[in-house]
Amino acid sequence: MNNSEKAISDYIDKLNSEKKPREHELADNSAEMEELMDVVRQVRCLREPALPQKNFAKSLAEKVASELKSGTSDSSSGISNSVGKKVSTIQPHTNVKQIKNVKHIKISDSKTSDSGKRLSQNTKSSMDKTHAASRLKARIAGTGVAAAVVIIAMLMLNSIYPLFNKNIVHAMEEAYQKVTAYHGLLEISETNAQGDTLNHTRLEIWADRNGHYVVKGVEGLQKGQITINDGQKKWQIRPDEKSVYVFAPFPDPYRFVFEIGKEIDQVKNALKITNVGSDIVSGRKTDVLEVTPEGGLPYRIWVDTETKLPLQKQTAMQNALQHKVAYTNIEFMDSIPSELISAGFPEGYKVIETYSEQSVSNIEEAQEIAGFAVTVPEGIPEGYNLDGITVVTDEKIVKLQYKTGTGIDSKTVIILEGKPKEEFKPNPSSILSKSNGADVEIQSPVQMGSGILDAGGAYAGITDISSIRWRQDKYEYAVVGDISIEELIEFANKIPGTNIEVPASDGAFPSKPQVEVPVDMEIERNTQKSVDSGHTPWKLDPAFVTQVFVGQLIYPEGIVGNYPVGMDEIKIVYNDGKTAVAQISGEKTPAKNVYLKKLIREDATGIWTVVGYDPAG
Amino acid sequence: MIDEKILKKAQEGDPSAVEKVCSATWEPLYRFVYSKVQNREEAEDITQETYVKSLSSLYKYNFEPENFSGFLKTVAMNVLRDRWRKNKRWKESAYIDEQKHIEAAYNDASETSANRILIEEALNRLSEEQRNIIILRIVKGYSVAETAQMTGKSQANVRVIQYRALKGLASILNDK
């Protein structure tokens, strides 16, 4: 089969999936290909067109009205700057410093990349601007895509320095550095393999770099609900129940999808980024990037060509479902409006506390409630300050919360301390270390909340949160935070008497297995993909993988009934996150030690594979 | 017919007026655009761009409010032409002057049915094997794997036949 046969076949498939073929954007298709594509389109006219979703006319009208209001059409005469609190004229020669000092100016954009040309038409269009300003004052948070002066500053910078020559990730990071807060309308949709939209959600979002946010459900399952996190507390207003649910502000597993800073981080940490073309999203010209995360399926992200900030994201089709998230409009501001974030609880609503933590003002009060003498760290790592003391009243656990930095760079660390209620058993998937000879459990991220972690808060399952748990002098401790393991160990070692060793990270076994087990990497790669899709999660647990392996050693023809070796007979004695050794007790086992490795991916999502064992006896 | 007052309000971005205009006119416009691009994603995008361009440039042209739908299609053709020209995909041979262009847009129904007849005639001149594969793949929308299964051919063979059939169709249509 030659390339043309494959290319035209792929083109037909793309049209059949009702997606815009890449060839419609390319200028370098061969004449033959152009001719064949033309024939395909003509033949395709024999079938009925695929009509849009039921709400198309409505959403179309909203988008059109929004663009018309903000004057984004190419045919609009010159610049139509809309101004919020202040009106300012920006001349092409205005220097960056001057621009940075002016806030709340929005430029109506610009589907095209002619912003420079538009800026130069300022004088001519001053009347337009005044008109646009008065229009804007009359409405809440502008419709249509708009950008703050900080973005203009960035654009000016772009023209002064050849920022476009730098890589896209750097440009995105630079752009985000200029953003202090933003307000946008987010559309989330799920599409199945047939192209039908199954779920459609619209959220109105205000967010700032401090991690504070207000999320209002406009359409979909969360319609009418408002979720607010002001850094001190988090609450959700549910008008249909006339209730307010109050949650702990940290860690916050809810957040919202498509948080700009987080998206940029993901692109930054990706294995591969490919520019696959350009597109128009919400009237903005965007560069389309295909991002391949480490070990994950590639997804696409649409980055505003001018502002360098992400506007839309589409995941790969997985399990016959594809997710698409897009800002249909976004504007940048100084801060979240205080009337939103400080709104408080609506009058007459029932307040439901979902966690039983009592805030206290000093250690003495905490000790009184908890009923034991609290061990306080001797000094804390530089830059951190004690931010709060709370007691989980029913579990008698004391929590000391420390914070460092401000804004997006802010980090939180919590020390938990309490009396243990059961035997200390590290999570089998955790990295193991020692403190004065005693076991230490290290999880990055926290996958399972055992002991004090389970009782002290909802930490498990949240990405970016790591933990260390250990026992000392009849008390159990844990340190939890959104910092690295090494930094957490430094924190933990400030507790008097604690001496946690940094676990080895060279991926070498403490001793060599006596029998090597051959591995088929193709099978492992496929298993990893299967696990990534939510199947066979036991492959992430070295104890479980050991149990299955030993079972197969005993019954090579297949395990029937219960596993011949119980989980209580398997102990993970070594785990550095990349390699692990399981020790098996009991009389039935033909292996006393099983050696496991993460062969495909060495993070918490990597599967374990048995690579060797030591025969028993 | 769309009331001129509503069009004026819509031009200013009045949401209710825009909704009235869109609700009354989107489907023929969308179908027209779809007939050119043959995929929903692009058709939706161009339909939106067409409304924005049409409404914002309404009174720059001597359009007749009673034929707003025709005007929309003319603008849609311009949008398509601009996009395709940018991608050098607008064939010189297919280039039509502004007047023909407008006529084509206004009279797309008759144009469509004429095209249909031409395509059907061209398909009938293919071999049965080629015609079947083209119908299954393009008109019915089956995948290569499904088409291979239904016709008892290998997937590679389906692609080869499909390619040859399209070359044949191109030649037949060019002769017309």
Q: How would you explain this protein's 3D organization?
A:
The complex is a heterodimer of chains A (617) and B (176). Chain A has 5 domains: 3-44, no CATH class; 56-161, no CATH class; 181-338, Clam (outer membrane lipoprotein receptor (LolB), chain A), CATH 2.50.20; 357-492, Protein Transport Mog1p, Chain A, CATH 3.40.1000; 515-615, no CATH class. Helix content of chain A is 24%, strand content 29%. Chain A has a 12-stranded mixed beta sheet. Chain A has an 8-stranded antiparallel beta sheet with strand order 16-17-18-19-23-22-21-20. In chain A, strands 24-28-27-26-25 form a 5-stranded antiparallel beta sheet, with helices on one face. In chain A, α1 (3-16) runs parallel beside α2. Chain A is globular and about 75 Å long. Helix content of chain B is 76%, strand content 0%. With 176 residues, chain B is mostly helical. In chain B, α2 (15-37) crosses α4 (68-86), α4 (68-86) packs across α5 and α7 (128-139) crosses α9. Residues 89-107 of chain B have low confidence and may be disordered. Chain B is built from 9 helices and no strands. Classes of the chains: A alpha+beta (617), B mainly alpha (176). Chains A and B meet through α1, α2 and α3 of A and α2, α3, α6, α7 and α9 of B.
Strand content of chain B: under 5%
Count of distinct structural domains of chain A: 5
CATH-derived architecture of the largest domain in chain A: Clam
Helix residue percentage of chain B: over 70%
What would the average pLDDT of chain B be, to the nearest integer? Answer: 79
Main sheet: strand order of chain A: 10-11-12-13-14-4-5-6-7-8-9-15
Largest inter-chain contact set:
A-B, 62 and 67 residues
Helix and strand string of chain B, N-terminal first? HHHHHHHHH
In short:
With 617 residues, chain A is of the alpha+beta class. Chain A is 24% helix and 29% strand.
